[in-house]
């Protein structure tokens, strides 16, 4: 089968080549991949010298089951699915039922492929915040993959969404997704917020933490700035009696036993029905992968990059 593999001699450190097809375990379905979406973290990982040539990466993929799991778990042959795994940039992937959600047959596989990492991360962090009804919730990196899903889901949960995006051209689009306020940086926010989903790190995290009200929580999800975080004693103490604030880290795969199937299925249904915008900002055949990777690494994309398999 064909796959997109690490190749340090090629543009974007990736190339299309033939690799052995996967052999699914009894609890895994074999999925014919139709589309994949790229995350900054994985394309950046491909550029690292220590990443071996020939490695197949890719968390996010959507397609059709061509062989159901032998143990009877998961969807049947012929079902359209959205999948989460580690080797998605290939024509076939073996996926356990816990990381596979079903989708309507007429759903766009490219839109579905944006869901796994971005959609699940936003959904699970917002759940950790508790009831959002009437609360001010800040989302940094709001025009990115996780951020766009977080803005939409928080707004639908009744939150007053404070979106942070460095690109002023994104403001109208974020308001259309449900943001009530759009600011270029957390330091520009004047009223305290009760919770933060931070995708950026660095000084953004420091300033977002300063915006928390008493008892507020900041969830560190990403570090797109690649900058270190330095919190001084004054940053931690806060002003105006805003104490008992906390910072929590989040990793989607922190508990390897988590069953994502129900959430993937729900998100797929919302995408298919048009109730969630997948935020695709670049799309093309996987033969043009180097263009998508270059745009991602150059920070020129706001939203998701999707590759359709030919």
TrEMBL record:
Question: Which keywords belong to this entry?
Answer: NADP, Oxidoreductase
The record's section on CDD domains has:
MDR4 (cd08270)
Domain Enoyl reductase (ER) span(s) in chain numbering: 9-307
Superkingdom, according to UniProt?
Bacteria
Q: Which GO terms describe its molecular function?
A: mRNA 3'-UTR AU-rich region binding; NADPH binding; quinone reductase (NADPH) activity
Q: Which SMART domains match?
A: PKS_ER
In terms of Pfam families, this protein maps to: ADH_N, ADH_zinc_N
GO cellular component terms, A-Z? cytosol
UniProt cross-references to InterPro entries, sorted A to Z: ADH-like_C (IPR013149), ADH-like_N (IPR013154), ER (IPR020843), GroES-like_sf (IPR011032), NAD(P)-bd_dom_sf (IPR036291)
**Protein's UniProt name:** Zinc-binding dehydrogenase
**Source species:** Streptomyces griseicoloratus
């Amino acid at each position: 089968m064909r796959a997109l593999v690490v190749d340090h001699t090629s543009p974007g450190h990736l190339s299309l080549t033939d690799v052995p097809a996967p052999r699914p375990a009894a609890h895994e379905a074999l999925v014919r991949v139709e589309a994949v979406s790229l995350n900054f973290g994985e394309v950046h990982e491909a550029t690292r010298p220590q990443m071996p040539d020939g490695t197949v990466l890719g968390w996010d993929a959507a397609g059709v089951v061509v062989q159901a799991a032998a143990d009877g778990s998961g969807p049947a042959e012929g079902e359209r699915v959205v999948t989460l795994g580690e080797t998605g940039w290939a024509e076939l992937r073996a996926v356990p039922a816990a990381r596979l959600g079903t989708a309507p047959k007429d759903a766009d596989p490219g839109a579905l492929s944006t869901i796994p990492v971005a959609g699940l991360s936003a959904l699970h962090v917002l759940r950790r915040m508790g009831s959002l009804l009437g609360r001010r919730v800040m989302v940094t990196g709001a025009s990115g993959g996780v951020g766009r899903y977080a803005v939409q889901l928080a707004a639908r949960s009744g939150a007053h969404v404070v979106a942070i995006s460095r690109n002023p051209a994104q403001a109208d689009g974020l308001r259309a997704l449900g943001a009530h306020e759009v600011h270029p940086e957390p330091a520009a926010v004047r009223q305290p917020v009760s919770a933060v989903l931070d995708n950026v790190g660095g000084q953004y995290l420091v300033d977002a933490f300063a915006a928390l009200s008493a008892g507020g929580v900041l969830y560190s999800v990403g570090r797109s700035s690649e900058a270190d975080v330095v919190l001084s004693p004054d940053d931690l103490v806060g002003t105006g009696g805003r104490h008992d604030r906390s910072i929590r880290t989040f990793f989607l795969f922190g508990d390897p036993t988590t069953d994502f199937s129900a959430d993937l299925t729900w998100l797929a249904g919302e995408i298919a029905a048009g109730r969630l915008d997948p935020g695709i900002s670049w799309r093309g055949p996987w033969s043009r992968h180097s263009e998508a990777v270059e745009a991602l690494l150059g920070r020129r994309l706001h939203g998701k990059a999707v590759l359709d398999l030919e």
